[in-house]
């Protein structure tokens, strides 16, 4: 009978242990569930904050684009106003008049003193050649450095 009573006590001890394991598991599951709920809530808050920030950034970018378009329109209108104010026909006519006057003066001077006009022309060509050589040397100097 001691054997049966020992088995009965062992069985009861196993049942008690199993019940404690079930209780601990249920308590642990509740704790894990609570932690998961809190994490989910925090992740939701972060996602909502990110959505709000993205919406604000989108709105700011839209306002900046609208402002840029308005500024471009205003600049185009100003340029058009300036272009409308310029009288190109008058400018061309004036340029032709000045060029004609200089050509007339040059012809008159050539008739009076051809040597002087030729010497001045040669001097201008020599000066132009010196300027071109100087510019080409500067470019070569920059290319090597």
Characterization of this structure:
This protein is an all-alpha fold. The chain folds into two domains: 1-86; 88-145. The protein contains three helices and no strands. The longest helix is centred in the N-terminal third of the chain and has 84 residues, at 2-85. The mean pLDDT is 77.
Listing every helix as H and every strand as E from the N terminus to the C terminus, the arrangement reads HHH
Q: What's the average pLDDT?
A: 77
Tell me which oligomeric state these chains represent: single chain
In one word, what is the shape? elongated
Give a quick set of tags describing it.
single chain, 3 helices, 145 residues, mainly alpha
Summarize this entry quickly:
This protein is mainly alpha-helical and 145 residues long. The chain is 97% helix and 0% strand. It folds into 2 domains: 86 residues; 58 residues.
